[in-house]
Amino acid sequence: MKKIYIILLVFLSISCEDYLEKEPQDSISELAFYKSTEDFELLSNAMYAPLPKLQFRPMLLDAITPYIVFGNNVGSEHWDFGNLNVDALWNATEDFWKFYYQIISRANLILANIDNPDLDLSQSFKDRVKGEALFLRGFSYFYLINLYGNKPYDGTATGGVPLILEPQEFDDAFTPKSSVDVVYAQIEEDLISAQALLPSVQDYRGTALLGKASKGAAQTMLGKAYLFQGKWSEAATELEKVVASNDYDLLSNFNDNFWPEHDNSIESIFEIQYQSGVGLGSIYNQAISPIGSGGISNSAWFKNQPTPLLVDKFQTLDGYDVQSTYESTNTNYLVTDYLGNTVINGKEHNTVFDIYNFTSDDPGFDSNMPFENRDPRFDYTVMYIGSKYVHDKFETRASKPGYYIPFGDNFWRRTNYNAVKYIVGSDYAVSGNDSPKNLHYLRYSDVLLMLAEAKFQLNDIDAAVANINTVRDRVGMLHVDTSLTLEDILDDRIRELIMEAGGHVYFDTKRYGTLKGLMENFWDGTQKMRNNYPAITTFEDYFYTFPIPQKEILANPNLEQNPGY
């Protein structure tokens, strides 16, 4: 699909600026001039274009939880460190709303025009493009309703979004909010229809269409939509279709998912497409890389910084928990590399560093080497001083043989850790803000873990165990057994999926209603890291939904703000 983007760039510079992006003057439908296969293919491609424009926004959703903190500008764009004073002018709320509704608007144009009997379009082409439109509309409404609405399994639905299903006339452009249940019903209808129309991803592989929505993507999204509503049997049925298709599999190495050469791989179900060198690259590489990192990225912002709460989630290889307790902060900590050297390139490097006491019941655990023999997903997710993976990933790559990255306080302003997942470094990016790396919304491992959860909720423990162990096998982790708990499944979702575009961890805490407890328990006022952030005395229920952007409230007199904002 990346090949399509150069053509799409030309189309967007003309059509989207002159048409799709303009405010309606009278009637949008009067401008629906699409007639040929080429017209509809271009409009189909344009449906995907807002996803890359979201850039790092979806990847930072997990920073709303206490597992991740926002590195350089505390609370400026995401809820962080107990700073929950978010309002309707928050940039992220505007971007999610704007770009998902752009996708919906373009999908509605296709759906309103493609079945015109006067058009000379093949049935297979119409089915595929119509299926893409239905998938992307259902996909977009799924994320909108889970950002601006909420319905935990044991609670009452709150919030909602306008449900727009046709190109709007100017006089009809003041749609009120629909409830969570009404929006989910439409999501289900769209995705059921989409999977009946879309081809298998096998038909895309080896073609320029690879990366577009497929039958498996529609089945996965429908399974996810059912799961988020507690419709366990329906979720299991859809997710089992994906498994039974044999269209997907896990890559042999977990870390391969996060390198450009494995974009649109056999594990990928749906991902945001990027292309460097033509103005369509990703800035996520820059957004999360450490500042002043030299060999990693230029002028980076270290936005996603793991907390000790996340670090402790990665067990030892034998399945034992690890607990870290803050002791003090050393303002002149001597950096040691992965080989134990303190003198690198002829000089010593010092940094501000938090000292923790690490403990575990694992008989082989060494508190002096707390990151040894841990779940391998840890090294591929979290950057830390002494990480051999940082050496292997950046220092020994072709462009900088023998190079040493001098860790310092610029690498982690808030914690001892930085994100490393999806950082590809300067070897791939034309510049720090032009990375070619795609970002995943849906991976096959997510399918297996969702299926494990659905089966667990249906009391089919053996099936749940089998699915979660398939994911753990890839990284050599000890198998779980029939003593499996729901917490075990959700913890493996954290280890596998944290800081990915699906916002998996954040949404898991919303649907189970655990975000309140996590925030209050972690941000309780006790020292957890070098910055002693204030306690969260009250996590209000309305924090579970985003505020609707103020500009939308002002533009639409029928649109009511979500409670609390």
Automatic annotation (TrEMBL):
InterPro entries in UniProt: SusD-like_N, SusD_RagB_dom, TPR-like_helical_dom_sf
A GO CC term assigned to this protein in UniProt: cell outer membrane
TM region positions: none
Keyword Signal in annotation: yes
Keywords, ordered alphabetically: Cell outer membrane, Membrane, Signal
Family stated for the protein in its record: Belongs to the SusD family.
Protein name (Swiss-Prot/TrEMBL): RagB/SusD family nutrient uptake outer membrane protein
Source organism phylogeny: Bacteria, Pseudomonadati, Bacteroidota, Flavobacteriia, Flavobacteriales
